[in-house]
Prior knowledge:
By secondary structure, the chain is mainly alpha-helical. The protein folds into three domains: about 1-70, no CATH class; about 85-190, Arc Repressor Mutant, subunit A; about 205-250, no CATH class. It has helices at about 1-10, 15-30, 35-55, 65-70, 85-95, 105, 110-125, 135-140, 145-155, 185-190, 220-235; strands at about 160-165, 175-180, 205-210, 215. The strands form two sheets. The protein has a two-stranded antiparallel ribbon. Mean pLDDT is about 75; it is low at about 60-70, about 210-220 and about 240-250.
Amino acid sequence: MLADQFIEAAQTAPHSRAVDELARLTGRALGEGRLSDAEASAVFETLAARRRAFAAGGGFARPRAEKAAGARPWPARRSPRSPDRQASIERRRRQAASGALPPALAAQFTTGEIAALAVVARQFQRNQVCVLCVDAIAALAGVSRSTVKNAIRQARTLGLLEVRERRRPGWPSLTNVVKVASKEWLAWLRLGAGRVGVKKLTATDTVFLARGKSQVSGHGVESAKRREGGARGLRGGASGPNAKGGLVLLT
């Protein structure tokens, strides 16, 4: 029967626009006499129940045009906030003062932007590429998402960074691939600016001569023998070390 077809279509309507179209067709069929009053009433009740299901969030998603006009089916994105603002300020200042950017380049950015670019530069030093998301860079630098975006956008405009987007049609996009493109910045990073290290010292071989004993270190044994042999020659008339080849103690 025609009424059963209308009721089945109303129960499976994918969105509110389809419900409105079924209501129009039901009224037309009622006016043409193809549906009785009782049958049309049953169809309208089914359509009303379907509308209530859409209002409560059930059923299928509404068309894109209705989504824009109505309320969002998902909660609005909340901006991430630091649980410890003072710790974020300290991280921001520490990253900005780490020396990851040459002074001439750092002068073109704010303190927060320098901190964000410092995180990118350190990741590039470790992995030759930075694939961190904006939220991760913001958390490490102690700044907001907007500051990170502004810093990367300005650095890209100045030719300091190379950004490659990884979009996937129909799927969430992957994080951008960021590389340092400036030759001046690359040379600065190769020098290891901002890294904390320890300078290696090489000890000098020395010979300590004291009354009644002699101490020789390293490969200076032969030179010590020659010097001590010469001292013996001056005192006893000999011209070198004794016949046994040992060292002569000065007294």
